[in-house]
């Protein structure tokens, strides 16, 4: 009998329970995984609180993990028992020692990328990929603003965008986080509790504004982010850690410079096998080359995930967080 973290109702971290759960034989097209490392992401909080509905209740949270293939369902051809694999995929269910997964959602891990590193980077790294390679293809001479620059996605975006030739501005919540962001490619960390990030961005860009803003904070930063953009700049709202953005009239985008706005999700960018393999391949390549270093800031036992959620929501975490089943 294996164990998983289940919720029977939505709410705070206390609703997560460490419970026994049996895993049936994999169906055709599926494999059974023994999971070795699980990634913690803010989307897990959205499911736990009910902002995003789980497919069923009781349900298991978690979107990202690495592990070893232990059994194959019929029709699985590209994987073998013993293969090391990783994923960032729907539906939720990663907070478990074992689970079944569609084989088409898994990617094999290179020998030089550990299970913990994979669990720390799949969702965040492929998010960074669509942000800087697909929504706004960062190029030399660009100036970008990334909020939560010392977080899991933020640190990857800072390094990758810097490698692509951009000037990187990032907001952080402490001096320690500013130093961490700077060590990972952020040219200009802004401590948002001590200075007005909009005024500082305008100062750094000579009043012009940045080419693109990557904003996972949401309500608290959204309007300020629009004011950081150059004329016809791109606003990418890809999360709402501080709450959902309040409704506003689309004409505001015209008033502020003919701005572009998108609200993407990773899963719209890895919806085909080809897209998944492209994102994973590019991510593995920059990690293997040392261009992007994956910072694991915290590790918790999976059964202690309530503390991990509390620390994440209180902004006490940096980099990526890994849960050990």
TrEMBL record:
Q: What is the designated name of this protein?
A: NADPH:quinone reductase
Q: Which residues form the signal peptide?
A: none
Per UniProt, the keywords (alphabetical) are: NADP, Oxidoreductase
Please report the stretch or stretches of sequence annotated as the Enoyl reductase (ER) domain: 11-323
Return the GO cellular component terms, semicolon-separated: cytosol
EC number(s) per entry: 1.6.5.5
Which Gene3D superfamilies does this one have? Medium-chain alcohol dehydrogenases, catalytic domain (3.90.180.10), NAD(P)-binding Rossmann-like Domain (3.40.50.720)
Under NCBIfam families, the record lists: PRK10754.1
Quote the InterPro entries the UniProt record gives: ADH-like_C, ADH-like_N, ER, GroES-like_sf, NAD(P)-bd_dom_sf, QOR-like, Quin_OxRdtase/zeta-crystal_CS
The catalytic activity, as recorded, is: 2 a quinone + NADPH + H(+) = 2 a 1,4-benzosemiquinone + NADP(+)
* GO MF term (any one): quinone reductase (NADPH) activity
- Family per UniProt? Belongs to the zinc-containing alcohol dehydrogenase family. Quinone oxidoreductase subfamily.
Q: Which Pfam families match?
A: ADH_N (PF08240), ADH_zinc_N (PF00107)
Q: State the top-level EC class.
A: oxidoreductase
The reply to whether Metal-binding figures as a keyword in the UniProt entry is no
